[in-house]
Design brief:
The C terminus is likely disordered. The chain is about 45% helix and about 25% strand. The strands form three sheets. An eight-stranded mixed beta barrel has the order 13-14-16-17-18-19-20-21, surrounded by five helices. A seven-stranded antiparallel sheet has the order 3-2-1-7-6-5-4. A five-stranded antiparallel sheet has the order 9-8-12-11-10. Helix 1 packs antiparallel against helix 3. By secondary structure, the chain is α+β, with helices and mostly antiparallel strands. The longest helix is centred in the N-terminal third of the chain and has 68 residues. It is built from 14 helices and 21 strands. Bound molecules: ligand C2E and magnesium ion (2 copies). Ligand C2E binds next to strand 14, helix 4, strand 16 and strand 18.
Length: about 525
């Protein structure tokens, strides 16, 4: 991934890390607020229902008692005494009296000294009770009362009594409505009749409707329902308050995520900076792995493998830092450093051994950069060596662009350098494409050597690769040879060269020189001179 892409992705992830917990906090706050406000509306509606049931029950009991004892003489002093007792003994009834032709003729309040017209009946229940819902009496002209008349007796109650529920929010709407004709027996605030429809056959229901959270509760005894509606702005307010409480948690979680992401991103970003630093501080060095001629077992060259020991002593694998260097335009500087190191390590040896080659790994970017040939020639001049002393190892990836591949391999070969195709078999180059390039060697990838004699499906592939190399007229170097059996197998099938732990692990150049002194050098068959077409 490119650096800018990494930064963009990190930024996006960081924004998500901050945004997501906040969004979740706000959403959760909204959800919790809705639960709380719905419960509150339901509580109000149940309280209203409870109070109206209690009122109705007191009214019914009081009137039943009067009818039983004083039906014949409803305004007798005994009856009026009874009325006063009922009045005193009930918490909801303001007064109780006798009605004749719409007139309150005697009552617990005024004895028999009145004939008060109660006005028209607003609502008649299925059970025969008559409701007047807005009656004003001379003793309290500003107040409105409900009069419930049952069989010539009437109870007077404060209009607000059933809905006189102590609500913390002043503008909560409360009502007790008749389910027979939707009329309001008592109500306060904004109440919509259509809310009753939502009840259906249920006992209670709660829902959000536009600007309100509404709860409706049905009476178990009468055809009435209690309604409570809490304005939605309380929900918003509660939601905001909750969000403010949850937000710090969301922010802390987001910040922790961002720190973790930045830490990881910084670590990734830190490698290129560390590579630059490592170049300055000379932290890179080379190890050389001997390449032998399979017929004689003698050393004919070596592959230079880059190593990075960081200041803290940690040894980093090229499999980690080479790809990072490739992505960050640092590989050309690393290749230049490899050449400098070859000059430093092997310069005098190569000038004395014109047939000995050192294989250098080059990356696709080296191919695109203009300075590769100049750097190679400068290295040769510094070593007083010839182009046969250096071989360039290029992976199939490095040959992806046919134009560049053809031009660069051509130029390098004309200058006398040998070119090997590295890790062969792991890419997708077609035979015809490879045929069109000027190459000298084919390095058979270690994975195919490993498979030799194992019976694995890939164990046959090595034979095809050998045939292909022969068809292309390329000489072969087998990589990763670890056993005698593998070496013998390859030798018998005409593979000329090999490298691997069987012949020697990567080592310092001084060790390599000692190794050559012990095992001998294949001087007669230089890698380069006889290879190619
Ligand atoms: P490569 O060029 O294919 O190098 C061969 C790898 O196989 C080396 O790993 C070597 O140590 C390992 N190897 C050799 N013989 C055996 C064996 O018998 N058994 C096993 N298991 N492994 C063996 P290393 O040094 O870790 O390098 C890995 C890769 O890093 C190289 O693969 C090459 O692609 C890249 N690399 C190394 N040095 C450089 C360099 O200077 N420049 C560039 N561009 N790439 C490099
Ligand atoms: Mg290589
Ligand atoms: Mg290889």
């Amino acid at each position: 991934m490119k650096k800018t892409a990494v930064v963009l992705v990190a930024l996006l992830v960081a924004l998500t890390a901050i945004g997501l917990p906040i969004w979740l906090a706000v959403r959760e706050a909204g959800r919790q607020a809705l639960v709380v406000e719905t419960a509150r509306a339901m509580e109000y509606a149940r309280t209203v229902m409870y109070r109206s049931e209690a009122t109705a029950s007191q009214v019914a009991t009081g009137i039943a008692r009067l009818r039983k004892l004083h039906a014949r003489a409803p305004c007798s002093s005994a009856s009026i005494d009874e009325m006063r007792q009922i009045d005193l003994g009930s918490s909801y009834i303001q007064a109780i009296g006798h009605v004749r032709d719409g007139l309150l003729v005697c009552s617990s309040m005024a004895g028999d000294a009145m004939d008060f017209p109660l006005g028209q009946v607003d609502y008649r229940s299925a059970g025969g009770a008559l409701f007047r819902t807005n009656v004003h009496f001379p003793f309290a002209p500003q107040r409105s009362f409900i009069v419930i008349e049952i069989t010539d007796f009437a109870a007077i109650i404060h209009k607000d009594l059933p809905i006189d529920v102590a609500a913390t929010e002043p503008d909560v709407s409360l009502a007790i409505l008749s389910l027979e004709d939707d009329s309001a027996i008592a109500s306060r605030g904004h109440v919509e009749r259509r809310w009753l429809e939502r009840l259906g056959t249920r006992r209670e229901v709660a829902f959000a409707d536009g600007g309100h959270i509404v709860a409706v509760v049905r009476s178990p005894l009468y055809m009435t329902a209690a309604v409570a509606a809490v304005p939605a702005r309380y929900l918003e307010q509660r939601s905001r308050d909750l969000a403010m409480r949850l937000l710090p948690i969301g922010l802390i979680a987001g910040a922790a995520l961002v720190v973790a992401i930045l830490f990881l991103a910084r670590q990734q970003m830190a490698i290129p900076a560390a590579i630059r630093w490592g170049l300055k501080r000379d932290e890179f060095f080379l190890e050389y792995q001997p390449v032998v001629a399979l017929q004689s077992g003698k050393v004919c060259g070596a592959e230079a493998l880059l190593r990075w020991r960081r200041a803290e002593g940690e040894l980093v694998s090229p499999e980690i830092f080479v790809p990072v260097a490739e992505q960050n335009h640092l590989i050309v500087r690393l290749t230049r450093r490899v050449l400098e190191l070859v000059v430093r390590d092997a310069g005098s040896f190569l000038s004395r051994n014109p047939d000995f080659h050192v294989g250098i790994n080059v990356s696709p970017a080296d191919f695109h950069a203009s300075g590769l040939l100049d750097s190679l020639e400068a290295a040769l001049r510094a070593m007083k060596a010839g182009p046969a002393n250096l071989m360039l190892e290029i992976t199939e990836r490095g040959l992806l662009d046919p134009m560049v591949a053809r031009e660069t391999t051509g130029t390098l070969r004309r200058s006398g350098f040998a070119i090997a195709i590295d890790d062969f078999g792991t890419g997708y180059s077609s035979l015809s494409y490879l045929e069109s390039l000027e190459l000298d060697y084919l390095k058979i990838d270690r994975s195919f050597i490993e498979a030799i004699g194992t019976g694995a499906p890939t164990s046959q592939v090595v034979q095809h690769i050998i045939r292909m190399a022969e068809d292309l007229g390329l000489r072969m170097i087998a990589e990763g040879v670890e056993s005698r059996a593998q070496a013998e197998f390859l030798r018998q099938r005409g593979v000329q060269y090999a490298q691997g732990w069987l012949f020697g692990k990567p080592m310092s150049f001084q060790e390599l020189v000692r190794h050559i002194e012990q095992h001998g050098q294949a001087a007669a068959t230089p890698l380069h001179a006889t290879g190619g077409r």
